[in-house]
């Protein structure tokens, strides 16, 4: 699936359907609680295109129907492994679910994005956020990118 | 850089339709003033009409001027009534009606109404241009008008208090050419107006710019992309405006020469400005942005510049992060 930011910033994102299906299945397994994890990938085309290639599941987390808190305990080896590949793959953002709700970022989600960009180790200027909403029996996917102090939604290209 | 691409962007950011609300306010106020004039002067006035750049399709959104030409009957102010009496009567009426909400000013051939800023800071400016037909009931046949020329310190030469013209013919002449030659005449007129707006109180009138652009295009080989066409017009102005015998005939009356609206010094200044502009742009393409800037209010983001970024090194996620719907 290739997505582009609908508004005028012109950045694109690509994620393999297989990976996306895997995330949806894992999210459903944790329903009715929220769940999430780390997104891994790399930038191409002069840093204008993001390819999300992999994900890392948290080893330590707390979840309820309305909240999800994950930690980075135990994922360092996986991050190193991806970073040592050619081409390098690295942490590009986060994903989580919204059980019985649409894939629209909450204020807590936006403050999480702020935490990423203010964290020196994260090094990310434009973290991406994938929300998998499960309103009723549907699956609602929302991809967002933080760009110049604003969250932009990607749309299907 | 692609200079023509930049110029196209400049035109796009200056499109009058981008200022829809302000345009609507001008149209509404213009209609209101028109109705007030018709109500007050009754059967002594023909239907006032808009003659500004909006009517000619050469307007830009950083300068909204609506000119409301108000054609009066020959005997509207008595069979011996003068043009001065017409001008003063229109001024008195507009002053009485709008003095609370606008600054009402006597101008060269018009009465300026500058409405005070509204709740969102928008200012509406309408110039009412009183004109009188040559002979009783002749206007509907020939559309010719005598305009009164107001000089702050009095009229100083015989016959200097009137301009005979045909405003409708002026509008049609420019509008027809600008509509037919959108990619040259209309665009270049708009660009030159953008340039003029970068200067404070520049003596060259918009009508002068419209006519000299058409003359340059009629007398030059205009080909290539937008920058090539604009460059040809700039070169024509540089090389001709200051020449002895250079004329710009008013399409509404060939006896009027718009070149006379500039002094010799003004013409020299205009020629020098064209020369400097061409040289600076020749030296460095980027200088074109100084002379022909985008309207910052509608500036288009250069999406080609945007990139994903990292601050170097391997990105590590923050140790603890909360997401959720906060029920």
Furnish the topology, listing elements before pairings.
The complex is a heterodimer of chains A (157) and B (327).
Chain A: E1 2-5, E2 12-15, H1 17-30, E3 36-44, E4 49-56, E5 61-63, E6 67-71, H2 76-83, E7 90-99, H3 107-118, E8 128-134, E9 140-147, E10 150-156
Parallel strand pairs in A: 2-4, 7-8
Antiparallel strand pairs in A: 1-2, 1-10, 3-4, 3-7, 5-6, 8-9, 9-10
Chain B: H1 3-13, H2 20-41, E1 49-50, H3 53-56, E2 66-72, H4 83-98, E3 102-106, E4 111-115, E5 125-132, H5 139-142, E6 145-148, E7 162-165, H6 167-180, H7 182-197, H8 206-218, H9 226-240, E8 249-250, E9 253-257, H10 264-283, H11 288-291, E10 320-324
Parallel strand pairs in B: 2-5
Antiparallel strand pairs in B: 1-2, 3-4, 4-5, 5-6, 6-7, 8-9
Helix pairs in contact in B: 1-7, 6-7, 7-8, 7-9, 8-9, 9-10
At the fold tier of CATH, the topology name of chain B is Beta Polymerase, domain 2
CATH superfamily of chain A: Cytidine Deaminase, domain 2
Tally of separate helices of chain A: 3
Protein structure class of chain A? alpha+beta
Oligomer: heterodimer
Percent helix of chain B: 40-55%
Describe the sheet with the most strands of chain B: 7 strands, mixed
Give the C-alpha Rg of chain B: 24 Å
**How big is the Rg of chain A?**
15 Å
Question: Total strand count of chain A, please?
Answer: 10
Overall geometry of chain A: globular
Strand content of chain B: 5-15%
Q: Give the integer mean of the pLDDT values of chain B.
A: 90
User: Percent helix among the residues of chain A?
Assistant: 10-25%
CATH fold type of chain A: Cytidine Deaminase, domain 2
Describe the structure.
The complex is a heterodimer of chains A (157) and B (327). By secondary structure, chain A is an alpha+beta fold. Chain A has a single domain, classed as Cytidine Deaminase, domain 2 (3-Layer(aba) Sandwich), CATH 3.40.140. Chain A is built from 3 helices and 10 strands; from the N terminus they run E-E-H-E-E-E-E-H-E-H-E-E-E. In chain A, strands 1-2-4-3-7-8-9-10 form an 8-stranded mixed β-barrel. In chain A, strands 5-6 form a two-stranded antiparallel sheet. In chain A, a hairpin with a 3-residue loop joins strand 5 and strand 6. Chain A is globular and about 40 Å long. The mean pLDDT of chain A is 90. In chain B, 43% of the residues lie in helices and 14% in strands. In chain B, strand 3 and strand 4 form a beta hairpin. By secondary structure, chain B is α+β, with helices and mostly antiparallel strands. Chain B has 11 helices and 10 strands. In chain B, strands 1, 2, 3, 4, 5, 6 and 7 form a 7-stranded mixed beta sheet that branches. Chain B has a two-stranded antiparallel ribbon with strand order 8-9. In chain B, helix 1 crosses helix 7, helix 7 packs antiparallel against helix 8 and helix 7 packs across helix 9. Chain B has one domain: Beta Polymerase, domain 2. Chains A and B meet through strand 3, strand 6, helix 2, strand 7 and helix 3 of A and strand 10 of B.
């Amino acid at each position: 699936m290739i997505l582009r930011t609908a508004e005028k910033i012109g950045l694109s994102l690509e994620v393999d359907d297989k990976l996306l299906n895997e995330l949806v299945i894992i999210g459903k397994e944790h329903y009715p609680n929220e769940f999430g994890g780390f997104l891994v990938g790399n930038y191409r085309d002069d840093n204008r295109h993001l390819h999300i290639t992999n994900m890392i599941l948290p080893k330590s987390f707390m979840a309820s129907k309305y909240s999800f808190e994950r930690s980075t305990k135990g994922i360092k080896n996986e991050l190193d492994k991806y970073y040592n590949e050619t081409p390098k793959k690295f942490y590009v953002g986060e994903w989580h679910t919204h059980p019985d709700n649409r894939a629209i970022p909450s204020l807590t989600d936006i403050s999480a994005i702020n935490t990423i960009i203010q964290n020196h180790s994260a090094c990310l200027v434009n973290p991406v956020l994938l929300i998998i909403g499960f309103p009723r029996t549907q699956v609602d996917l929302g991809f967002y990118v933080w760009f110049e102090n604003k969250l932009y939604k990607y749309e299907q290209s | 850089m692609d200079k023509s691409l930049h110029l196209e962007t400049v035109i796009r950011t200056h499109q009058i339709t981008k200022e829809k609300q302000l345009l609507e306010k001008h149209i509404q106020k213009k209609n209101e003033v028109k109705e007030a004039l018709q109500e007050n002067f009754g059967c002594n006035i023909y239907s006032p009409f808009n003659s500004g750049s909006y009517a000619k399709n050469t307007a830009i959104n950083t300068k909204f001027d609506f000119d409301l030409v108000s054609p009066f009957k020959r005997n509207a102010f008595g069979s011996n009534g003068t043009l001065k009496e017409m001008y003063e009567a229109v001024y008195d009426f507009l002053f009485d009606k709008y003095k609370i909400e606008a600054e009402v000013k006597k101008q060269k051939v018009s009465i300026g109404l500058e409405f005070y800023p509204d709740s969102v800071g928008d200012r509406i400016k309408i110039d009412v241009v009183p004109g009188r037909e040559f002979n009783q009931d002749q206007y509907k046949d020939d559309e010719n008008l005598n305009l009164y020329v107001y000089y702050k310190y009095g009229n100083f030469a015989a016959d200097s208090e009137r301009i005979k013209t045909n405003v409708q013919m002026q509008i049609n002449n420019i509008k027809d050419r600008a509509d037919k030659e959108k990619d040259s005449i209309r665009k270049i007129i708009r660009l030159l107006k953008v340039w003029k707006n970068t200067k404070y109180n520049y003596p060259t009138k918009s009508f002068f710019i419209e006519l000299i652009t058409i003359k340059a295009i009629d007398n030059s080989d205009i080909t290539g992309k937008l920058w090539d066409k604009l460059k040809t017009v700039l070169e024509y102005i540089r090389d001709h405006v200051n020449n002895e015998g250079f004329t710009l005939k008013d399409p509404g009356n060939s006896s009027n020469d718009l070149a006379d609206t500039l002094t010799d010094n003004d013409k020299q200044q205009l020629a020098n400005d064209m020369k400097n502009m061409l040289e600076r742009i020749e030296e460095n393409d980027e200088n074109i942005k100084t002379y022909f800037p985008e309207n910052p209010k509608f500036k288009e983001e250069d999406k080609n510049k945007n990139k994903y970024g990292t601050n170097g090194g391997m990105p590590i996620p923050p140790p603890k992060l909360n997401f959720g719907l906060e029920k």
